[in-house]
Amino acid sequence: MTGVTSLRLVPIIVVVALVSIHARASGTSCHFPAIFNFGDSNSDTGGLSAAFGSVPPPNGMTYFRAPAGRYSDGRLVIDFIAESFGLPHLSAYLDSMESNFSHGANFATAGSTIVTPNITGYSPVTLGVQLIEFLEFHERSRAIRSRDGIFKELLPRNNYFSRSLYTVDIGQNDLTAGLKQNWTIKQVEASFPQLITQFSEIIKNAYSKGGRSFWVHSTGPIGCLIYMLDRYDDKFGFDEHGCSIGINELSRNYNRALREAVEVLRKDLPESSIIYVDVYLVKYTLITEAQKHGFKQPFLACCGHGGKYNYDNSRRCGTKITNEGKEVLYAKACRDPSVRISWDGIHYTEAANKWIFNKIVTGAFSDPPIPLEMACRKMAR
Ligand SMILES: *[C@@H]1O[C@H](CO)[C@@H](O)[C@H](O)[C@H]1NC(C)=O
Ligand SMILES: *[C@@H]1O[C@H](CO)[C@@H](O)[C@H](O)[C@H]1NC(C)=O
Ligand SMILES: *[C@@H]1O[C@H](CO)[C@@H](O)[C@H](O)[C@H]1NC(C)=O
What we know:
Structural class: alpha/beta
Strand content: 5-15%
CATH topology: Rossmann fold
Low-confidence stretches: 1-26
Strand order of the largest sheet: 2-1-3-4-5-8
Mean pLDDT: 93
Number of helices: 12
Shape: globular
Distance between the termini: 35 Å
Bound molecules: 2-acetamido-2-deoxy-beta-D-glucopyranose
CATH class: Alpha Beta
Number of strands: 8
Order of helices and strands: HEHHEHHEHHHEHHEHEEHE
CATH superfamily: SGNH hydrolase
């Protein structure tokens, strides 16, 4: 038996090796037929909105002309990723209205954490829940597609699970939840091993369902975001640009742990291509060199009201108040979101997201330095 098995394996290995050498040499792009995304509001295309209350206007004003489940005036980085492959924008798994999952699904929800935090105010759809949803999605897609009927065409083909791009962008809310509990930076860092273990589960499980191509975003410079500056002011010190030194250090330390986890996963999952993308550096560059890149007022929320950042945590973008019996929009949008970075003090504008996408798509911020369209290729290391 053993002899037969190894004989059968030999030609397959040779073919696989030839294919990947060919791809590397000729630069063939990957043609991903679908994308499966896991994350938080940085990539939520309507999950939280569908299940826990609509994202209010003026969100969506720039591109969709109406709220579209995204915390932004327009498209997110994940939308630009989908567009770059000629794929439709991803439907949110939790959205049962008008969803079409034939080219992927989005499990991200705004406020998602990797593990359940010890305080309220975050999405219950943790990365652990997103994993359960993905496994359910995988199982039932296959079952539904094996029958005829109207739902078949709304689900991915069976072989898409192995040919898809799997994207992950999560961690920001775990760090902010730690700080919100008045943990010291050191205490937040003590939670990293638990976060990394759960993060790794997503990759391992997707791999076990055939997934081979992974695109992992680092967490951003949270210490440059208005909601953090508004809450903590100079508690952790300011750098020369006005970002929080301590909070950004926390983000970078988390990213170091994430990058090490990716290294381990590459060894454990030998057929995987796992690309770590230094989104931190891209966003930090954008915020701290705003003028140079055609943007204005990086520390002023476009949509908001009051205070030194045009941000009021208890009355965020889209909040209405009743004035003399009339409902009026209290926290509204600035005139020109296209030259602004911060949409609502927490999330980025479409213009910023597009700028970020244009940087990361090239592979210049990736480890290994592979462009997005080649993300299915392992690079000789
Ligand atoms: C689902 O989306 C695909 C790709 O955009 C499209 O070809 C198909 O017609 C859609 N199905 C339905 C029922 O809208
Ligand atoms: C969670 O919160 C409760 C109540 O505030 C506290 O007693 C407990 O120690 C906290 N647990 C952790 C792990 O911080
Ligand atoms: C954290 O500290 C602030 C200020 O001392 C306090 O108001 C808040 O209740 C504390 N939060 C928790 C979760 O202990």
